[in-house]
Amino acid sequence: MTGTETVLGAPVERREGREKVTGTARYAAEYDWPGRAQAWPVPAAVARGRVTGVDPAPALAMPGVLAVLTHENAPRLGEPDDSTLALLQSPHVPHRGWFVGLVVAETLEAARAGAAAVRVTYEAEGHDVTLTAAHPEAYVPESANGGFPAVTEHGDPESAFASSATRVDVEYRIPPLHNHPMEPHTSTARWDGDRLTVHSSSQGTSAVRTELARLFEMPEDRITVLAEHVGGGFGSKGTPRPEVVLAAMAARETGRPVTVALPRRYLPAVVGHRAPTLHRLRLGADAGGRITSLTHEVTTHTSRVKEFVEQAAVPARVMYAAPALRTAHRVVRLDVPTPSWMRAPGECPGMYALESAVDELAVELGMDPVELRIRNEPETEPDSGKPFSSRHLVECLREGARRFGWEGRDPRPRSRAAGPLLIGSGVAAATYPVLVSPCAASARALPDGGFLVRVNATDIGTGARTVCAQVAADALGVPLDRVRIEVADSDIGFAPVAGGSSGTASWGWAVHEACVRLTGRLAEHSGPLPDEGIAADADTSGTADAESPYARHAFGAHFAEVTVDTVTGEVRVTRLLGVFAAGRILNARTARSQFIGGMTMGLGMALTEDSTVDPAFGDFAESDLASYHVPAHADVAAVEAHWVDEEDAHLNPMGSKGIGEIGIVGSAAAVGNAVHHATGIRFRELPLTPDRVLTGLLEHEHPAGMLGT
Fold first, then answer.
1. Secondary structure, 3-state, 49-96
2. Cα distance between residue 425 and residue 670, in whole Å
3. Is residue 453 within 8 Å of 515, Cβ to Cβ?
4. Mean pLDDT, residues 166-188 taken together
5. How, if at all, do strands 49-55 and 324-334 pair?
6. pLDDT one-digit tens code per residue, 275-324
7. Residues involved in catalysis
8. 3-state SS assignment for residue 7
9. If we measure between CA atoms, which residue out of 97, 114, 110, 108 comes closest to residue 48?
10. What is the maximal distance between C-alpha atoms in the chain?
11. Is the pTM of this model over 0.90?
């Protein structure tokens, strides 16, 4: 791309693509400084209790082992902002898998063997890891994740529901889910006197630097955190994680650079997970299909280390025009690992339950589910009463229905079959909020005619550096190949994490502002540029985070076609189609990739991804990719992502909304609704594995009491 007329929105190839496919892109574990050592953690082997003794002698006697750190000899840390980072500071074990030691060695193999040789004794205590809706210790938190009120209520939902012509009162259950990025959590740390340099697989270097400064009680300007290439995160790298603290701790103790690369099987216990959610939805409607009452209540779990409440009832506050509306969250503190961010926290599980219940309401009403959603389109945001900055959900539904061929669908369950295969189709809506945070950026015009743009964005595989360069070229009015960009270095300046679908909107705003200011300075300059060039800085504090009078959200519609094998119970998704309204699309190629990736991840949530907390041992039974099944290419025959052109002047200078998460929201519900259409059976617990589906099919064919005859 050399012209400027279509630089923003063009399907530009990712700048780092060649590095990645040729293997020259370096990740956090690949910075092999001279003398670098490797470290391996020791996880707790009890579900709750305390360490009563540690014998490091067998490990220290092994060749290559340099040190064994435990709560008895590890350096004292400052008070963390995140309690999950109070590592090796006390003998207390809050859950199985909590790190109780770290072995540092010359090689990775020696560190692993040394960790296995450390002898730890415990005093075990009774534990509780089982979530139930009726758990006696469930409570209403002060707020849910993101600062949302735990409970909201408008009108009188109870009486409105009781008097509704058509009612649906249903419960849905979603198990714990795990992020499992391709690159596990890894950091390499090095001390040079009182300066600390860290290469970290993180979604935000500013947050890591701030936390390290707090823990090691040192000024932030003596810490540099870099994350040039990150192999995915899906939220699990959105905050500092144990490996970066352990690497810095071990490097200080040994006087050598140290890499800590967490084994994949350790990840579920220490880097967060999507907490299980139990949903109860009550929807009432009048004879014309207008929703009269909507109640969405969620029960979830958190750990005893730190409270994290999945805000799964929040999207119900956005979606439909219900004069009587109640949403509520309850949470139970259990002896489990601390849950955390996972792609579209809140919206993903919440919209699965809500959109499944809306489908149930459509069936009860005998109404087309697309038409039911359109009929209940609100004029303003139901919860806040604010006008929407833009809302094109109806257009997404209509365009998706047209592309999918929805008009020819026979609404009757089990109306299509091919031999033993039942064929069905389903629909679900999607929403995700527009989030923007302050950011710093700089732009410099160079004597050679090029431009250098610096912003501390983190590219976690989404193409962030490419899109930020497009924003810069557009603002400068120059060809894209004249813009060089530097990212993912905490020394550049503060920047928000790559999370909440807010990265490009936040970084891009600062980049745009810096480039506009530079253009102004260049217009005032005459003659050749000085050797150092001419620069301009931007800081969007106070503007990007200003309160908006508008409700700002992206929207979308998912359509799915499935086959259900009546012999094996296997569900196959033969087609997924999504249509989205997400403001101005800044790069058509990377946007399509994000949408398709999210939709496929939602498919995994619907069909394959499942985790359980073992009640006896207190840990996740599915802790690796052999037992926690993520979808592969073969699991979906066709995925299509489209979008509607959306102009919105109330967002940011680019007019963009986030796209990293809306693709997963609603995808699982569309699949589940399609399975119902295929089978006539409503499965209300995910995932829809063959054993669960086959059991449902057998019970459908042979009602209770008939199977044994």
1. EEEEEEECHHHHCCCCEEEEEECCCCCCCCCCCCHHHCCCCCCEECCC
2. 8
3. yes
4. 98
5. unpaired
6. 999 999 999 999 999 999 999 999 999 999 999 999 999 999 999 999 99
7. 661
8. coil
9. 97
10. 95
11. yes
369, 168 Cβ separation under 8 angstroms = no
Q: Which tokens is 422 given?
A: 């039942």
**What distance, in Å, lies between the first and last C-alpha atoms of the chain?**
71
Residue with tokens 């008097």: 163
Residue type at 393 in one-letter notation: L
Please answer whether residues 203 and 179 qualify as being in contact, where contact means their C-beta atoms are separated by less than 8 angstroms. no
Instruction: Report d(CA 211, CA 206) in Å as an integer.
Output: 9
Joined tokens for residue 469: 């360069």
Residue matched to tokens 């609100």? 378
Query: pLDDT per residue over 423-481, tens digit each?
Result: 999 999 999 999 999 999 999 999 999 999 999 999 999 999 999 999 999 999 999 99
Cβ neighbourhood burial of 704 (10 Å; 0-12, 13-18, 19+): exposed
- Give the count of alpha carbons within 13 A of 15, CB side only: 19
Q: Which two tokens stand for residue 685?
A: 């617990």
Please tell me the distance from the alpha carbon of residue 285 to that of residue 161, in angstroms, as a whole number: 8
Which runs of E-coded beta strand occur in 459-615? 483-486, 534-539, 553-565, 571-581
Half-sphere exposure in the Cβ direction for 398 (13 Å, CA): 7
224 has which bridge partners? Answer: 197
Which residue bears the tokens 């299909």? 289
The answer to whether the Cα torsion of 541, 544, 550, 554 is positive or negative is negative
Which residue carries 């701790």 as its tokens? 249
CA distance 330 to 300: 6
Structure tokens at 209: 């630097």
Both tokens of 290, joined, read: 């207008």
